[in-house]
Amino acid sequence: MIEIGYTTMTEQRSPKDLIRDFVAAEEAGFDFSVTSDHFHPWLEEQGHSPNAWAVLGAAAQATETLPLMTYVTCPIMRYHPAVVAQQAATLALLSDGRFRLGLGAGENLNEHVVGAGWPSVEVRHEMFVEAIEIIKLLFNGGYASYRGEYFDLDGAKLFDLPDTPPEIGIAASGRPSTRIAAQLGDFLIATEPKAELIRMFGEEGGEGKYAVGQIPVCWGESVEECKRVAREQFRWAATGWKVQAELPNPVNFDAATTYVREDDIAEMISCGPDPQGIVEAVRPFAEAGFTHVALVQVGQNQKEFCNFYEKELKDALKEL
């Protein structure tokens, strides 16, 4: 049976609200949680973007059993990979081993803020490989040094390291990134229910490893209100991954989605109170071979959504 997770989307909630959301998700019985790691929101209307690692540290203390995960952290620009390794090791200890490290090659939206420019996708992948190698090297323990084309590490050691390092998940959208995920990761991360990603993952060496997907929904009593909220908060998703990785600021996403209609978003996102709509949205992930799917509740009704999951949606999803 597929595991169902809950997404704390930092772009749409304040830090304290996010901690309350973690607690609500644990009480509702979600199998795991994932947390976005942004510097900027996608749109000004979302209105938030606290530091994900600070939020996760607080969540590790506010919850007891809910697995935690970054979805995803980019270790090639805002953060040096050594810093990511230290953060992940610390969080693994704070959560008593409930943390998994999700990594990806990032978006211009968040990474350009350090003023280093935005490399081509080929260069980003090369940087990404070096970053993962450094993180894994530090997870092995002891002093370590590394000399790469993009990153150096000079006599670094993690003094607070769990006995079992966090599993590393790698976000992938095509053959090159799927190869990186299979060869350097413990599991695959993807946002589209494409069976070919699972197939390529296996072909590149990921056979037997699991895959985590994610899907937005907008649950609420009124279909029309859900469509309004989904368009206001999530119209950025209509641009597609190649655009999402390249635009630098929320104002650019606003301009790119001016003509996206509520009905356009409703074709992408299940809107309204019907649990079966969410079941049918998750089904393609299960059929493609994903073992885990995290739901993103779009908007502010997070506690209400968790109650809905506990009372109705959890049982409805069991058919998958």
From TrEMBL:
Broad class of enzyme this protein falls into: oxidoreductase
Origin superkingdom: Bacteria
Domain Luciferase-like: 7-292
InterPro entries per UniProt: F420-G6PD/mer, F420_G6P_DH-rel, Luciferase-like_dom, Luciferase-like_sf
Enzyme Commission number, as recorded: 1.-.-.-
Signal peptide as annotated in the record: none
Keywords: Oxidoreductase
Coiled coil: none
Pfam family, one: Bac_luciferase
Gene Ontology molecular-function annotations: oxidoreductase activity, acting on paired donors, with incorporation or reduction of molecular oxygen
Listed PANTHER family: 5,10-METHYLENETETRAHYDROMETHANOPTERIN REDUCTASE, PTHR43244
Protein name per Swiss-Prot or TrEMBL: F420-dependent oxidoreductase, G6PDH family
Organism whose genome encodes this protein: Rubrobacter radiotolerans
